[in-house]
Every structure is written in structure tokens, then in C-alpha cells.
Amino acid sequence: MKSGIKAGIIVFPGTNCDIDTQRACEFFGWETEFIWHDDKNLDKYDVIFVPGGFSYGDYIRAGRLAKFSPAVMALKEYVKAKRGFVVGICNGFQVLCETKLLPGILSNNTNTKFICEEVELSVNHENFPESVKFAIAHAEGRYIADEQALEKIKAKNMIFLQYKNNPNGSVFNIAGLYDKENKVIGMMPHPERGIFLETGNCDGRYFFEMLKTEVENGKYIRA
Amino acid sequence: MKKYKADIIVTLKNGVRDPQGAAVDMVLKRTGMEDSAGVHTGKFFSLSITGEDEASVKAKLNTICEEVLSNPVLETYKIERFSEV
Fold first, then answer.
1. Is B22 in the A-facing interface, judged by CB distances under 8 Å?
2. Which CATH topology does A6-105+151-157+176-216 take?
3. Predicted model pTM
């Protein structure tokens, strides 16, 4: 079933959730293409995913070097032009924060461990159940921001996902942000890992269904 | 007992592959910031250390550097600062 939505998935050296994201998009009938980090032509996509992994080996800091790639430079223009939605998942969230497309930054988990588990989240969005279970897998997932950024987050109602049992020490239990004005979503949990029955959790579908509704409602400008 | 503070920098020996340095080098080149910066990466440590006198503290510090902070096969260390506090 074709939905008419065209999604692009940015692939850096070291990205490893690109195929999961593609399979999730295709489950909903979205046409998907991979965007190599050298590519700059993003205008044809309604949604652009910055998937999870370890872009450029996470050298210097998670997401630091990815922000200089041609694809991410073009992503800034894409957001500025309000062409479509940008979704950063895990390492993608780290890239969006390093790029300043979202406020704040992700630092090391307070327990210093790599946390790989399913977590309960409360959701702040009208087209979503109030509570979902998503997988997390990260060592640098502790969301922190200065007071100015936190004020902005509150003023713009950007808190999208919050941990019920904060596993990593994030401020305000923040697991994901949604800047509705600029159509930028970033989150540490992996909705793309909760699509197929085989994984034992299908809550990720709620996210893709929500995104589909947002895109179809024409909350973006077609090129 | 005397207390000293020391700063130590550990770097890879010449000829040991430094992928982090190479990746940063490439980014600097591609963004046009610097053509061949020759980036080398390393680690910085700051610590306090106590002992009877300067000689014994220095000996202890060298052991820490050689056994804990670096591996002499791959890395070299440099004591950047050493002063009594």
C-alpha cells in the first residue's frame, strides 16, 4: 500500500539503524531512500530520518563530526525552509542537538553504563496513547540543557517523551523533544524497533502513525 | 606528607594509527577550515598525589603513568605540570 510519503534516511559511516528505520517506513507504505552523508539534495523528502548508530565513530563526542557533513549542512536549510519533518533517533537526536537544531545536549548516563532495555514513557501529543513502551540503547542519553534552553523548551511546549523511571539522569525525565514550529523531533528511544510482532512490542507504530498524520495534514510545504 | 598536583597527557606513539585524529583531519579538510592539520588525539589526566618527598612522589607518578594511564607499546606520556599544593 503506497501512502505517497517519501522518506529519506541519512547514512553516515557508522550508522547502524538505517535498515530498521527503512523497514519501519516501508511497513507503512512510505517510499524510502538512503541519503549518503555526502548528498545535499534533500528537497524531495517529506520526512528525513537521522537514524541511530555511531556516526563517524562518535569521535570527539557523539554527533560532533556528523554536524559538518554535507547532508547535515543541507538539513539545516531543509528545516529553515520548513520543507518537511526531521526525526533524529538516538545518535540522530545527538546529531540534532550538536547541530543546534534542538536545544540542549546528550551527556553520559549518570550510572556510567550502556543501557539497553525497554522503558515506559509518558507522551505529550494528542494523537498518541498517554503511555508507551519503547526500546533504548545508549551510553550517552542523559539529556541536559542550560536554564535558557529549558525556558525555551517549556515556553514552546517541546517536551514530547518523558521517562517514567528515569534510567539515565535526564533533566525533567526528558527522552524526546518535538519542536512543532520547526518540525524537528529528537528522541533517545527507538520507535523503529517496535514495529513488527516478532520483536514483542509494536508501540513504535504509534509514532509512525502520528508522523504520517502530521505529514498528511499538510503541516509542511511541498517543494 | 606532601601533596602534589600533576597534569599528564597521553598520546599515541608515532606510526600508531589514530582513527579519531584521521576523522577530525578529514572534517577540517572537507569544511575548508584547514587543509592538512595533522590532528593527533590523546588523553588528558589531572590528579593529586601524596608522598614523603618529591622524589618518591615522582617515582609513584611514573609508575601510575606507565602502568595505569598508558601502555608503553602504543602510547607515550608527558607530565605537563607537577607542583606541590
1. no
2. Rossmann fold (3.40.50)
3. 0.90
